Amino acid sequence: MNVITSLDTDTTHGLLGRANSPQHFDEQKIPRLLLVDDEPRLLASLAELLKDANCQLVTATCGSEAIEQLSKLQFDLVLLDLRMPDMSGHDIMDFINEHGIDVNVVVLSGDNGIDAAIGSLKRGAFGYLRKPYQHEELLNTVANALQQRQLEAENRRISWRLECSEKLYRYLVDSSPDIIYTLNAEGRFTFVNDRAKQLLGFNREELVGEHYSRVVHEDDLERAHSVFDERREGERASHHVELRLKCVNSLEKERTFDNTLMTISLNSMGLYSQDQGAQKKEHFGTYGVARDITERKRAEELVSHQAYHDILTNLPNRIMFRDRLELAMMQAQRSKTELAVMFVDLDRFKLVNDSMGHLKGDQLLQQVADRLQQSVRRGDMLARVGGDEFILLLPDFRERKDASAIAEKFLECLSQPFYLDGTELHVSASIGIAVYPSDGETIDDLVRHADIAMYHVKTLGKNGHQFYDNSMLDASNQKIALEQSLRKALEQGELEMYYQPQVDVTTGRIVGAEGLMRWNHPERGLLTAGDFLPFAEENGLMIPISDWMIEAACRDLHDWNAAGGELRRLSVNLSPLYLDRGDFVTKLRDAMIRYAIFPSQMEIEITENICIRNPQYAIEQLHKLCQLGVSVAIDDFGTGYSSLAYLHRFPIHTIKIDQSFVREIQPGRSHFPVVLAVISIARGLGLHLVAEGVETDCQARYLEQAGCTTLQGYLFHKPLTRAEFIQQLRENAAPLR
Fold first, then answer.
1. What is 309-468's CATH number?
2. What phi and psi values does residue 428 have, to the nearest 5 degrees?
């Protein structure tokens, strides 16, 4: 077997060259020819004759070899000799037909009998050439055979594409999410796809021939008629309208559809006189696409509902409340009556969020909203205006005792315990009430004064209600003035750091100190951190104040080191808000570098609640501190809600026993289990221990005997100024007790 390949891409001459031109064949597909003849010279001559063609030539010298090649390769044309020693060319053609081999055959035979030619043509031969044949005759026959094969292949491709296109069109129409239909000029269905069955419950057979009024809602028939009878042409023939269509065998009584309609004109040719038009357009019917927009309408209704309602509690929101309040005020003004606004704020709700997470906090708000809603009168409007704040409109207001009765009802319903996944919770509320028009003639004034009355209740101990009066406004203005003064305090240097020494009770030496912030108020004198830091947290001042504290503590520690002080550790309290800021570690590092502070001398105090607000985030931030070499202490240990299971996961170095536990140590009693438990926890975890608020010798002795040797409190030192603390460090060589 020989394979002869010609890759000559030059234009060949004659019919064979035209058949192989790019307009007939893909340039990447070269025709493959099988030349079969038992005479080597004739086979070589045939191959030589076809060598200039852009074809791949394969030769076979006997019938079995030809069958082997036909079994392995795909050929476009076989040039076949009839007489061969092992089998005849007819046998090879029978093999081709029996096995369904797609190939054209041209018979080259020296037999002059008619039977050989007839036998070849019956077996499907494309051509029959008697030897000897003219070269041009052979080339033309080969070219024609290849051309016919190419045309047949092209026809098959076109037929296949048409078939696929038709199937695709049918699939798209029947699988469309929209109802596709056509109507005749009388408005009767001539076609409808399968989507009508899925959406409306009508079979195609039920609708074809029926009038469109069969499916259109009765209230929309008049509008549907104006649309379905549309006779405009061109771009103006398209029309959009929303219609409700009736459903059968469905749980829904009706669905809403957005119909896109297009008028179709049938163009016909007629015979007319010269003064008449040569062409006339006749209205034929309507083609339509109906899109189901039921879910969109529901979504629009939902969006509209959510625009005026709180998503969490489904109560009216601030926008809807203001609209209703404005309308109620207009009615009260016309009728010369009063109305009341009640502002309700939950007490200690932030602690629930911090200790149990926002998900549980949301569940609590939902339960609170349900209880409050059940306590209001018909005609009153309860709304949630944000966070744990609710507001109630009392349009039918006659006497203040009516509002007081509702407020007391609120407090009573909230006094019952709440349960979240088996956990019992107790919450209360502070309620402020403002009356229109005596407490405000505008929406903003009325709501603001109710809010001021509510804050007044909080200052009095929470869990109560108060009506607004003008004296509360003066107190509110004082708070605003305090905020302005606190902002100026940073700018004018009125803040100052005090330091309370921590003493090793066994040696009497100062081993550490806690930094405490003070405010030298120009009018109110020296204020402790408890007097202004809670207010700073509420008004967004905690970040700049904490920045100042870090800077001041590092500066003072630098001065103590320069003065020869031997302070092991300085502790500063860190606000949870400051921990939530991802850049506080960077600020602390920069300050220590700037003042050449050893990281081991700095300790950051955090509360237990920091560890449970977002445990994973807290772990990441505290590990960053440890990487700097800064130690971490838990302040007021035992007073929060954190789980001891978290404690070993946090990089904690120090536990501080809260002074409320130390205060319980009194003469006449010998056992204080909470203190002993905290000390045991610290020992078990290998943590440093500090007791706060030590004020008596009895407390100091008990703590020392229990294993806590680092004490802090007025028994040893009160908080000292920077200068006083330096003096104490210099005197630290002598025992203090």
1. 3.30.70.270
2. -135, -175
